[in-house]
From TrEMBL:
Residues 310-319 have a biased composition (Basic residues). It holds the Pfam family Epimerase. Residues 310-334 are annotated as: Disordered. Transmembrane segments: none annotated. The lineage of its organism: Bacteria, Bacillati, Actinomycetota, Actinomycetes, Kitasatosporales. Coiled coil: none annotated. Belongs to the NAD(P)-dependent epimerase/dehydratase family. SDR39U1 subfamily. InterPro entries: DUF1731, Epimerase_deHydtase, NAD(P)-bd_dom_sf, SDR39U1. This is TIGR01777 family oxidoreductase. It comes from the Bacteria. SUPFAM superfamilies: NAD(P)-binding Rossmann-fold domains (SSF51735). Residues 3-221 form the NAD-dependent epimerase/dehydratase domain. Residues 274-305 form the DUF1731 domain.
Amino acid sequence: MKIVIPGGTGQVGTVLNRALSAAGHEVTVLSRQPSRPGEVPWDGRTVGPWAEVIDGSDVVINLAGRSVSCRYTAPHLQAMMDSRVRSTRAVGEAIAAAAHPPRVWLQMSTATIYAHRFDAPNDERTGVIGGAEPGVPGYWAYSVDIAKAWEREQANADTPHTRKVALRSAMVMSPDRGGVFDVLLRLARLGLGGPVAGGAQYVSWIHDHDFARAVQFLTARDDIAGPVNLAAPGPLPQRMFMHALRTAWGVPVGLPATKGMAGLGAFALRSDTELLLKSRRVIPGRLLDAGFGFRYPQWPAAAGDLVGRVRSRRRRRRTGPTAPSGADRTPATP
């Protein structure tokens, strides 16, 4: 198949490009700063010559949007909103104008759309949309507003011949440098991976192999449209999440952190405490109902695999290039 990935140069795009290319698909990435074969320039805001690769493609997977790993200042939040809405609008306009539109448009969204809660998990049918929770910082509602605007822009696009799926994704865990797992593992190795503010807040996540397999599954299933949660069925409290990661690496202790300490750490990392403190308890109801089988449904096994791949990469750097082991290859089929 011909697959186009707008905004596909980041961590999640790298995961998908690797898996889809390994499966034999022709992948084109739309990038603001193309630097590799298979990358086409676009501005992420307006329809331009890049739209030619949309016309005649089979699948579009739009991942474009400013990174959430930043301080949640008003300008940064506005940039997050604008980058997501404008890029989604441009992709929709390109699909609408195509003589041969793609049969499916997978649009990145986020599990952050759901409410901060501890009492029950959020699935697509019964989950509570956030934005009005008591006792949380008011600016958290803006993240929910961004997610809703993101999905609304896709839903309103006039693309009657293209099936639309909104990917409400949890954090994608991969051993690639610069990703969220890389940051969390570094904290654990330094002995800083303990409970944050008590650690009761839930962490939702998905292993990179399962993320890529789920995307291929949704591409093939013509009967699934609308919001779909891309999250492993085993969310767990942050203290248990980090304990499993420390165990996988072999670090016996993780220093706890108060809310104030988390704020200082987030400031040093140019990030925001919402990423640490919001309880994201999300489960993949529609994927499970459709028969998708997770290879890594629980975090301890997933953490063990990811740690093993990190260590394998380190060994290869020390000893020179060798053929990748099976654990390092992204599965090419669902």
